[in-house]
Task: structure prediction
Amino acid sequence: MSYIANTLNNLLHQTAFFNLTIGNYVMIVVACTFLYLAIRKEYEPLLLVPIAFGMLLVNIYPDIMMHIGENGEAGGLLYYFYLLDEWAILPSLIFLGVGAMTDFGPLIANPKSFLLGAAAQFGIFAAYFGAIALGFNDKAAAAISIIGGADGPTSIFLAGKLGQTALLGPIAVAAYSYMSLVPIIQPPIMKLFTTEKERKIKMEQLRPVSKLERILFPIIVTIVVCMILPTTAPLVGMLMLGNLFRESGVVRQLTDTASNALMYIVVILLGTSVGATTSAEAFLNSATIKIVVLGLIAFSFGTGAGVLFGKLMCVVTKGKVNPLIGSAGVSAVPMAARVSQKVGAESDPTNFLLMHAMGPNVAGVIGTAVVAGTFMAIFGIV
Result:
């Protein structure tokens, strides 16, 4: 009987119930909340489901993120996924898939969209100085500030390059959370800075873009941007390579792989590994709260700056630009462009802004990568 009792006692104490802290239970609740939002509310489920599940796993079984031992002991499963984040492999592959999935035509047809994409980066610099004011060092502030571009892969990429791996989990979760909440956060800001008359502005149809232009665009952008900021090559280069796959028309198999199978595999690996960085010990602290608040402020500032610059363009062009497309200057592709369309359609159901908003949206992706490269250049990171 004592043998049976000891065996049952050992089994009982091997369960997670005896090893978890209150913080772990809090994070489990947070993970379940994210799963609810992803599944029930459909808030960007492709991102939130793997992130939330990684969060759930690491707070039940922390050893799933155990580092490789000094004597060569094996690490936890998700730790190996996480190394691909640290080495900038997964963020770069995400950009490859985004390039293969995205039509750059609206940006080529209306190059002025670059200005709207640039304006929306204001949120990044607002967050940078805010983070400095809250006591973060300059590299940590730079890594945190990229959240303002609503760009999860670039946030992970820059945090890894600047050696801010301790903050990578909160930064990535904040960035992806705000990306998924774009349809909730942006509309009130867009309506605050625009009038009903402005929201009803119908823009002229974009000119057709030739195949030659579509092929030359990713090549020229790669040469120009990467010559000026070579550190952007992993992101901008992969983004443009994916788009060249799409537009060249001669590598359809590569386009399909990059935009479908490879993209989804990378999302699974990146999402679960990002979620697994949010153990209670790493996540439940004052720094995380500051990062989440700074991210929201930065994203709001970026949205507002894009809309206000859109209003300026509206005045300069004598009413030919709908200011709503300025909000799409953040990097959340294509969600931000869809929100511009949705808010415009609420004022006038016959108003179609989606393609016009895609120009600033694509420009925002490029702009956020350029800002990340600028920070790396400032800090001497190669």
Notes: The radius of gyration is 22 Å. DSSP finds 20 helices and no strands in the chain.
